[in-house]
Amino acid sequence: MFKSSRTVSKVRLLFQRSVSYNLPSIRLLDSLKSTESDLPGLFSNKTINELWYNRGQALVDNLNAQIIKNNVENAPANLEELIKVSFSKNDLNALFTNASLLHNLQFFLESLKTNEDRSFSKAQISALLKTPSTSIKVENAPQDESLAEWINDSFGSMVEFKTLLLNSAASIKGDGTTWLVAQATYSESAMRDGASTGVSFDTLAIVNTYNAGIVDDSMRSGQVTKMKHQKQLKLDAANRRDQERKEMAAGEVQEQGQAVEEVVQETQKRSISADENALGSVEEAEEVMLFSDRKLVPLLAIDASMRAYLEDYGIYGKRQYLENVWHCVDWDVVASRTPKRFKPSMVFEY
Amino acid sequence: MKIQSEATRVLQLTSQLLKAGVIKQKPAWFDIVAANPPSLDLTKKPKSLQNQQKDDPMNSLFSKRKNVFYKTRYTKEDIRQKNNSTIRIPKLEFVEDKLRDVFYHQHPWEFSRPKDIVENKGTEMEKCDWSHMLQLHKPLDGESVVQRTMWLLKESKESGKKQTLFEAYDQARFEFYQLRMAEETEAAVTREEATMFGCVYPTTYFARGVEKEQPHVDRWAKLAEEQTQYLNAARNNVSASVGSDASEELSSIWDLGLSQDGAAETEQSL
C-alpha cells in the first residue's frame, strides 16, 4: 500500500513540475544580495540572507514537497489563490502553513526601502524601561495624498496610526504579523447603490495574524464557537442514543415510555422559551457582528516575530526594530496596493 | 481625636446644666471661676491654620523690643498662649499632594484600577529610578506621573534648562499616555493571540452577571406581557365606551406597534 502510493507520487512529480513554486524575486533584496551589503537602516546582510534567501527557500521547498505529497492537481500558480484553496482543510494544513508564511514574509519584505538616516545595534536591557518619545512629529509619513487622508480619517491622525500600528506589532509575543488593511462590510456595501461591482472599502484598520494566520476573518475567529458547536453535536448524539435505549426499554412498558416522552417534550419546550429572551454570548455576538461580514484587503505587513529582529537588535530591541521598520516602509508600494476608497458623502459619527 | 477644649468650657457647661435643672445647686467654685475664667487655651491648633502666627510668648521675656523697653513679665494674653508651640501640630504640605490632586481630578477612572497597598517594608519607592517612567517595582499609575514630574523638575534645575511645573507635569502625563496605550494594546493583543492558540477563557464577571439576571428578565417579560394585555384591554374598553370608531382615533403608531407585538408574542408563546 505504502509502496504503491510512493510510486504514484513519483509519477506525479514528473507530471507536476510545471506547478512547483520558486522563491519570488524582490528587487531590493536581490541587489543587496549581489553586493553583499546591508539593508541600510533596518537589516544586516546576514539577516536578509537568513530571513529571505534561507528561510524563504526552505518554505518554498516545503511547499513544493507538500504539493507533491498531497497529490494536489492543478495547483494555482498564484500563491494567494493557493492559500484560498487550501485553508481550513485538515489534510492540506501543512501546505497552507508554508504557503501563507511565505506570502506574509514576501508581503512584508516587498514594501521595504532603504533609509540611510537610521542605524541598528543590539539593544541593552535598559531598552525595556525606555521612556517613549512624546513628540507628535512623524517622519516617513506617506506622501500619497489620498492614502494619507484615508489614514487620517480612519485613525484620527498620522501619529495615532503609527502608535497603534507599532504597539500592535510590539505586543505580539510569538510569531506574528501586523497588517494595515482596507476594510469593507458586505452588508453595508450591499445597501449602497449597486452601480459598483462587489464591495466598497470605506475604512482602514490594523489587524494582527499569528503564526501562519492570514488576513481573513473567517480564519481568524470562531474557534470557540466551532468547538461549542462540536460539543453540542456530541451531546445531542449522546442524548439521542439515550433516548433510543429508553424507547427500546419502554417498548415493554408502554405507559412508562409515554411518561418519558412527555418529560422530554416538557424540557424541550422550556429550553425554547428560555432562548427567546436570552442575550447570547460574546462569541456569538462577535461571530455575527464582526467576523462573517467583513472583507479585508492587506496593504502593509510588519513581521513582528523574533527571527526578524533577534540577529541585529538583540532580545530587547523589538521597539527599536519596529521604529526602524516604520522609517523603512515604502509608502509608494502601499499606495499601489490600496483599493479604491468609497467615500460616503455624509459621515455619521457614533 | 476631638479638639480638647472641655476644661476651659467647664463654667459654660455647668451654667447650662443649672439652667436645664439637671444640677439643682450651684457648685461652690461657680462664682469664683466665673470671676476668674481659666486663661490657658487648651485647643490644639495646627501650625499654619492661624494667620500671622506669633512666636511662643513664653520665649519673649527679656528680649529687646523695637522700642527700648525690655519685657519682664507675661501679660494675660501671653499666659493664655502658654507653651503653645509644644501642642501645636504642624500642617504638612507637599507639592506632590497637589499634583496627585490635579492628576486624579483629570483622570478619575485611574482610581478604578486595583492598587497594591501592602508593602513589606514600605521602602519600595526607594528602589525606583525616575529617570524613566516605567519601573520594575511598581505598576504604572498616577503616582508614577507625580514622581516623574518631580524628577523632571529637579533635573531641569540641575541641568540649567528651564522647565516650569506645568511643563514637567505635561511631559510626564504624555509619557504616561503613551505607555498606557501600549499597555492596553498589549492586553488586547495578548488575549487575542492566546485565543488563536486555543485558549478558552472562563466566564467573565460580566457574562456571569447577565446569566444571573436572565431568570429575572424572563419572569419580568412574562409579567410585562400580561400587563400589556390588561392595559390594551382596558384602553379598548374605554375607547369603545366613548364612541364606536374611537379605537381608530386612539391608535397612534406606538399603540399599534405595541399591540401587534403583544399579539405576536402571545402567538409565539401559544
What would your notes on this structure say?
The complex is a heterodimer of chains A (350) and B (270). Chain A has 350 residues and is mainly alpha-helical. Chain A has three domains: 2-110, no CATH class; 125-221 and 287-337, minor pseudopilin epsh fold (3-Layer(bab) Sandwich), CATH 3.55.40.20; 223-276. Chain A contains 15 helices and three strands. Chain A has helices spanning 2-15, 27-35, 45-69, 79-86, 93-110, 145-155, 158-171, 186-191, 217-220, 223-250, 254-277, 282-291, 306-313, 318-327, 331-337, and strands at 176-185, 201-210, 294-303. Mean pLDDT of chain A is 82; it is low at 1-17. With 270 residues, chain B is an all-alpha fold. Chain B has three domains: 6-87, no CATH class; 96-196, no CATH class; 205-269, no CATH class. Chain B contains ten helices and no strands. The chains are: A mainly alpha (350), B mainly alpha (270). At the A-B interface, helix 7, helix 10 and helix 11 of A face helix 7 and helix 8 of B. Chain B: Pfam families: MRP-S25. Chain B: It is found in: Mitochondrion. Chain B: It comes from Australozyma saopauloensis.
List the SSEs and their pairings.
The complex is a heterodimer of chains A (350) and B (270).
Chain A (H helix, E strand, L loop, with lengths): L1 H14 L11 H9 L9 H25 L9 H8 L6 H18 L34 H11 L2 H14 L4 E10 H6 L9 E10 L6 H4 L2 H28 L3 H24 L4 H10 L2 E10 L2 H8 L4 H10 L3 H7 L13
Antiparallel strand pairs in A: 1-2, 1-3
Helix pairs in contact in A: 3-5, 4-5, 7-14, 10-11
Chain B lengths: L9 H11 L9 H6 L40 H5 L3 H4 L7 H12 L35 H18 L5 H32 L8 H38 L3 H5 L2 H17 L1
Main location (chain B): mitochondrion
Subunit structure (chain B): Component of the mitochondrial small ribosomal subunit.
Family (chain B): Belongs to the mitochondrion-specific ribosomal protein mS23 family.
